[in-house]
Design a protein that fits this description.
Layout lengths: L1 E7 L3 E9 H18 L12 H7 L1 H24 L2 E2 L4 E6 L3 E11 L11 E5 L4 H15 L2 E4 L9 E10 L2 E12 L7 H7 L7 E6 L2 E14 L5 H6 L5 H33 L8 H15 L5 H27 L6 H11 L8 H24 L1 E5 L5 H6 L7
Parallel strand pairs: 6-12
Antiparallel strand pairs: 1-2, 2-5, 3-5, 4-5, 7-11, 8-9, 8-11, 10-11
Helix pairs in contact: 1-3, 4-7, 7-9, 7-11, 8-9, 9-11, 10-11
């Protein structure tokens, strides 16, 4: 096999390959042998069909399989000789047959880079949120968890739950219709126009509101209020506490543990951003695309220009960070054991089968490797105290993570 690299970008490669046609014939013969083992034709026993009959009858199929093997073998040989790590499968963009088989392959590789100076990184730890704030938030979450829902006949108010039917009309054409949609009045995810028209509405009332070029026709089907429980002795008993004081003490203890985990998460996020700032290199588009698609799938979002603008850069940063962490894990001999992977799979209740086994094992192993490497760097980091410079609301609602 001879080959010439005709496009030699940092991550994107294009290669012309020339292989004697006898190699393709060899692969076809191998495929004939594989097919013969299980093939049964009239007049012949299983495994006894003559090779020339198999070849003549199934030549197109055999040749396609042989060509795939030829491409895969050539691709792997080039990767091995050049010491490249693939970031994508090889794309066959041209084939010419003759005395030699001429292939043109296009693929991406993981760029070669070195990473140093990652030990003892300085990160800054902010003060925890005030105890009274933590307690109030924890109490509110607990009350929300045990809230009851009651239908009401009065006009709706902010925080009520409204069940409705929405028909969206544009240019006198119904674009969509949704029934039994439950929304919370005042929810910021709703358009302001919807929130305004729902406040003060009554059951069975119909509303119309124009948003842009669309008219939203709304039918109110049910209005409900959320009733939050009082934190009293009876409620304390439902939480296996003898009295309110014991309940409050346990809530505060739990809230502080949650706050400690939040601060640790912020520190690890800061550590990740510090590592990212240490090096810039080109990220394979295939890996970024895969991460972008994973993010969309996780959030149940469609692929669109708006979502690409929103998530693409984050996906690229995540890929870059993971590649850097992989390099650190390799240098520091940080490994994930099979037992650790299987423990996570068991906790998550994932059922392994022949179809998903390798993908699940690889995915969980990759996540654990990233987390173990971050933990290793965190233990080696220099943590400095600093005063809080962002509001509690910002600290809680920040969603700009580059980590998984």
């Amino acid at each position: 096999m001879e080959y010439e690299i005709i496009a030699n970008d940092e991550t994107e490669k294009e290669v012309n390959i020339s292989i004697p046609s006898t190699e393709l014939e060899r692969f076809i013969d191998e495929e004939v042998g594989k097919m013969r083992k299980d093939l049964t034709l009239n007049g012949f026993r299983k495994g006894k069909v003559p090779k020339n009959i198999i070849r003549n009858r199934y030549l197109d199929t055999l040749k396609a399989r042989a060509m795939n093997n030829l491409v895969a073998g050539s691709f792997l040989k080039i990767l091995d000789e050049k010491k490249w790590r693939p970031a994508s499968q090889a794309e066959l963009i041209n084939v010419e047959e003759g005395e030699n088989i001429k292939l043109r392959l296009r693929f991406e590789i993981i760029p070669d880079f070195n990473i140093d100076n990652y030990m003892g990184l300085e990160i800054f730890k902010e003060e925890p949120l005030p105890d009274d704030f933590l307690f109030e938030q924890a109490i509110n979450r607990l009350r929300e968890q045990y809230a009851t829902i009651k239908e009401v006949s009065r006009p709706s108010v902010v925080d009520d739950l409204v069940t409705l039917e929405i028909v969206i009309v544009e240019n006198n054409t119904v674009k969509s219709k949704q029934d039994d949609i439950v929304v919370k009045i005042g929810d910021r995810s709703l358009p302001d126009e919807i929130n305004r028209v729902l406040a003060g509405a009554r059951k069975l009332e119909k509303k119309e509101v124009k948003i842009g070029n669309q008219i939203h026709k709304i039918s109110i089907k049910k209005i409900e209020e959320k009733i939050l429980p009082q934190i009293d002795a009876d409620f304390a008993k439902t939480q296996n506490c003898e009295n309110v004081e014991q309940l409050k003490k346990e809530i505060m203890t739990s809230a502080k543990k949650v706050e400690e985990k939040r601060i640790e998460g912020e520190l690890k996020e800061s550590l990740s951003n510090t590592i990212l700032g240490r090096m810039k290199f080109k990220v394979p588009k295939t890996l970024t695309q895969n991460e972008y698609q994973r993010m969309l799938q996780k959030s149940n979002l469609p692929d669109s220009e708006a979502n690409k603008e929103r998530f693409w850069d984050i996906a690229e940063k995540r890929v870059r960070l993971n590649l850097m962490l992989d390099k650190i894990a390799e240098k520091e001999n940080i490994k994930v054991t099979e037992e650790e992977i299987m423990n996570v799979i068991s906790i998550m209740g994932i059922k392994l089968n022949d179809e998903n086994h390798d993908n699940v094992i690889g995915y969980i192993g990759n996540i654990l490797s990233i987390e173990k490497t971050i933990d290793f760097l965190f233990q080696k980091a220099q943590i400095s105290e600093k005063k809080r410079i962002i509001s509690p609301k910002e600290a809680i609602n920040d969603t700009s993570s580059v980590r998984h």
